[in-house]
């Protein structure tokens, strides 16, 4: 496809975060034209999201920092325009979709953006229902947004942005949390939008997922943009002989909650890995919350090491079960990365090994909230594993990891199981299932008209 109209251009763009002496991105010269999809890759923390934040106006207008160079839209500088003013031309999906949710109900979220474009109420209603239908969210239209799964929230924010139809789309890992059907739908829609003249800048770690739809590709290397994409390389993972699976440490029986169908009975041994699979909204996260004690089952029983946990508190359960949440921001509280992992009753040696093995040691004195989303997930994992639980629950923690970081994470998880720890995890990434050689449990689609809380 021949690009005919240049929409976005950066001229020697550099940005330095507050408290840093070196720029996060440096001398970026990039053009984005109508009708093309441009891929942006690079290691976790290399500057990809920083570039998108600069283009959208989030940096420096909302988070501070020093920006030099220029950003042009149709050959006019937009540096002085606010995020709101730029949103007339630029639609943005951030890594953490929860930061983009402004209303309580699903359908109201789509309506909110369209109302800001001064569209007539009749057209707004039509567009809102059309987008909900397109993304499989029409049955959930009147739900509270906090009833949605992470994948459904991702679908909702994508629907909101596409409904507004801005000329430029900045998408920061929009495939995160999406199941296979959702990923294929999004790819199809992005191709359609590019054919209609929209320009798309797409950040994604799983390059093989989007190679077939991208027109050009760039790669961030230590804050500098390069046009030569390195080959995808997944480091070797060492898997030694697993311990004998004889000690049952977790069992569930006829477990149910709210309006969900009864969950499959689970039996987990020491050293075992169980991967929960299923489409967005089928109950994977809900099942993990039940096992962790964050919510109590409507029916059924959960046993850890032969004892029921139904009457135990979350604190008591946490002595045996660690839980790494989908959103790492919900469980990072310390002032530094080091303090997040070095907790009371935690072995200093184990904590420092985890920081080293998860490539976080160099960031030990950084504030956890200054990290990239991928780094935050590795930190949350280190903080949980440092407490040496018998079972670790992992909810989509591989999102936002470049191949090297993903390999480090998977190696740490395998090491945990080889010391008799057990894992229950969710992931839509096929590489995770391949390398962990996990047994699987399939949860089936759940399409109620109303979910019970």
How far apart lie the N and C ends?
49 Å
Rg is 23 Å
**Structural class assignment:** alpha/beta
> How would a textbook summarize the main sheet?
6 strands, mixed
Do you know the CATH architecture of the largest domain? 3-Layer(aba) Sandwich
Overview of this structure, please?
The protein contains 15 helices and 19 strands. It has two domains: 6-226, Rossmann fold (3-Layer(aba) Sandwich), CATH 3.40.50; 247-442, P-loop containing nucleotide triphosphate hydrolases (Rossmann fold, 3-Layer(aba) Sandwich). The strands form four sheets. Strands 6-7-8-3-9-10 form a six-stranded mixed sheet, sandwiched between helices. It has 453 residues and is α/β, with parallel strands linked by helices. α5 (121-134) packs across α6 (150-164). It is globular and about 70 Å long.
In short:
The chain is of the alpha/beta class and 453 residues long. The protein is built from 15 helices and 19 strands. Helix 4 packs across helix 5, helix 4 runs parallel beside helix 6 and helix 5 (121-134) packs across helix 6 (150-164).
